[in-house]
Amino acid sequence: MPFDFDAVIHKQYDIVPLDRDFIPSKQVAKPHILWVGCSDSLTLETFTLDVLQDEIFVHRNLGNILSNGDLSSESAVAWAVDLLKVEHIVVCGHYGCGLTKSNDPKALYGWSKDIARLHKMNEEFLGEVKDKSDERSHEHRLEEIYTLAEAGWLRRQPNVKEAIRERGLQIHAFVYDRETNSAVRLVEIDEKRET
């Protein structure tokens, strides 16, 4: 299922500081969290969340991408959801991601084609509003909506939908900031109303 790009660009969300105990540790060496992160984010999952290393099943790739049909990503999600029965999936982007900054649709043999399309639509959406001097905020917003888009795509996958419905699997969107060595949660406005 591809992105609904229009919905992604218009997402309303809040940026909430991430408490390290947001997902409590069970103090048991068994994964209950799938962490999907970027290969170059330099974030330690166990620094971001105060859990044991054995409580996290980690999958990393360029740009924390799940939606491009990559077999490795699909296998990691299937393994974690269907066999490990994880209770949480974290999609963690990071500010300053080289892949998100690139808007070349040919880059990496189509790996980043959805990001390129988001770049174009984001430029059109921000249009006159975008202050050219505030490039950093613009890049941060692009990383945030992209991370939310991947989390949203994940929620629509049949096995994930079933796990959400049957056992309360939760999907979270985080973004790590190297400058502050901290992470934030991205909470969609509709999601906030439900909690």
UniProtKB/TrEMBL annotation:
Alphabetical UniProt keywords: Lyase, Metal-binding, Zinc
Pfam families according to UniProt: Pro_CA
Gene Ontology cellular component list: cytoplasm
Catalytically driven reaction(s): hydrogencarbonate + H(+) = CO2 + H2O
Top-level class of the enzyme under EC nomenclature: lyase
Sequence positions that bind Zn(2+): C38, D40, H94, C97
Cofactor binding, per record: Binds 1 zinc ion per subunit.
Family listed: Belongs to the beta-class carbonic anhydrase family.
Function description: Reversible hydration of carbon dioxide.
Name this polypeptide is given: Carbonic anhydrase
Species annotation: Lachnellula hyalina
